[in-house]
From TrEMBL:
SUPFAM superfamilies (alphabetical): Immunoglobulin
Classification via InterPro entries: CD2/SLAM_rcpt (IPR015631), Ig-like_dom_sf (IPR036179), Ig-like_fold (IPR013783)
Gene that encodes it: Vstm5
Biological source species: Ibidorhyncha struthersii
BP term (GO), one: positive regulation of excitatory synapse assembly
Protein name: VSTM5 protein
Transmembrane segments: 144-168
Subcellular location: Membrane
Keyword field: Glycoprotein, Membrane, Signal, Transmembrane, Transmembrane helix
The organism's place on the tree of life at top rank: Eukaryota
Phylogenetic placement of the source organism: Eukaryota, Metazoa, Chordata, Craniata, Vertebrata
Entry GO terms, CC: axon; dendrite; plasma membrane
Keyword Transmembrane: yes
């Protein structure tokens, strides 16, 4: 049985592909790195937060941020370093981008909680990823404010009731003081009348 020989055209194609891959690897700038210093962020409603990252890349990089939560996946922003910035219409007035790849989100809401994914892709196709988990809580002082207002209202009602009871008590005392004098005066008149009749 004769061994199967490879076709000369296949050999030349493999050689060309190998050469192109070698040239691409040699021309690649050495990849891209990403550092996420704060992977977990806790915030409250209506606050502004900074999703801080730092990337390094020899070539031109494309940065993309996405938000993933139980409500779905939303693309926030994509930009190329030193070039265009494409912000999603949902985040149009809420996002500020920075050259190091970081973004600032304004006026956080409960629906903004979830995972924030950043993808940094260099011009040669190498990519790296990072994740930041954001927890958004209801503002506690609003609840305290409601409790304080309710307490002040109850205190005011109690004060009014106490004043009303005090006035009633005073009026009752004054009425009791006047009543015996009238009784005494009428009793004296009766005694005098009886004396005269006798």
């Amino acid at each position: 049985i004769n061994p199967q020989r490879s076709h000369p055209a296949q050999d030349s194609w493999c050689s060309i592909t190998s050469t192109l891959i070698t040239l691409l690897c040699l021309s690649a700038p050495g990849g891209v790195s990403l550092v996420v210093p704060q992977p977990n962020i806790n915030t409250t409603v209506a606050q502004n937060i900074l999703l801080s990252v730092e990337y390094s890349c020899r070539g031109v990089a494309t940065i993309e941020w996405k938000h993933v939560s139980s409500w779905g996946t939303t693309k926030i922003v994509e930009w190329k370093s030193g070039n265009y910035v494409n912000i999603s219409s949902v985040y149009k007035d809420r996002v500020t981008t920075f050259e190091n790849g970081s973004i600032q989100l304004l006026n956080m809401g409960v629906r903004d909680a979830g995972y924030y994914f950043i993808t940094v892709t260099e011009e040669y196709g190498t990519s790296t990823y990072g994740t930041i988990i954001v927890n958004v809580y209801e503002i506690i002082y609003e609840d305290l404010h409601f409790v304080a207002v309710l307490f002040a209202f109850l205190a005011a009602v109690s004060a009014i009731l106490i004043c009303f009871m005090w006035l009633c008590n005073k009026s009752l005392h004054l009425f009791q003081k006047k009543t015996p004098q009238k009784l005494t005066a009428s009793t004296t008149e009766e005694i005098e009348l009886e004396t005269i009749e006798c």
